[in-house]
């Protein structure tokens, strides 16, 4: 069961690489088109060029634009077979691609082992895949797209409603009340931190995408674990930020995306919820329920 889930996760990971790379480009083109329409209403829109979406064109080398052959596009193995280089031009292929594929396979297998092959585990796999895609996009562009975060939040609420009305007996996905409260509390909590930080410093400490991502996690996991997610993500984010400043000499004003830390905390809570709650209780006793 876990092996099948892992193989399926590898395939999904290959698709997530496409999403991470192409979705920001698609959004940028759409924003530019809308700006053009707003600034010059009534004018003929510029030629958008060749069709570009998640399916078209076929995957190609970023350096030489040579289409990638099917045998070279096998998750992880294709990269290893080519020794991390393009078969046509020899340019290096980023190691991130097989890492995303391998990590997606491992997480998918972990969910299958933890919760079996059920409707709930299938839904939780979708949550995990979305978190991986959001993390990659945020690391590259400091962007958490609404086209992922908002549907993810609503899907969590719908799953809670389905579990309650259909009597599916979900173990992780909460009931409808806890899901809705989780979405509201998740958004409001980080929004409040943002407003307070902006009031004191005059600077933006968080992005609105972070609010929506935590709202989505609250919808999927319930308001009861939000303190665990916030504490874990804050501790890891602060540790990484301090390390980058001290060890790597980075500027203190450097913006560090918070989305990957929220996503990682959400994954840990999903897979090891009880242990995560115990850990946060030890680190910060006043958060104990």
Overall description:
- This protein is an all-alpha fold.
- The protein has two domains: about 1-115, no CATH class; about 120-289, no CATH class.
- It has helices at about 1-40, 75-80, 95-115, 120-140, 145-165, 175-200, 210-220, 225-245, 260-270, 275-285.
- Helix 5 runs parallel beside helix 7 (about 210-220).
- The protein is globular.
- The two termini are about 35 Å apart.
- The mean pLDDT is about 85.
Task: List descriptors.
globular; mainly alpha; 289 residues; 66% helix
Short description:
With 289 residues, the protein is mostly helical. The chain has ten helices and no strands. 66% of the residues lie in helices and 0% in strands.
* Structural class category: mainly alpha
Chain-averaged pLDDT: 87
Q: Whole-Å distance between the termini?
A: 36 Å
Major beta sheet, specifics?
none
Q: C-alpha Rg, in Å?
A: 21 Å
Number of domains: 2
Structure summary, number of beta strands? 0
The low-pLDDT segments are none
The percent range for helix content is: 55-70%
What is the topology?
Elements (H helix, E strand, L loop, with lengths): L1 H38 L37 H5 L14 H20 L3 H23 L4 H21 L9 H26 L6 H14 L4 H21 L12 H13 L1 H11 L6
Helix pairs in contact: 1-3, 1-4, 3-4, 4-5, 4-9, 5-6, 5-7, 6-7, 7-9, 8-9, 9-10
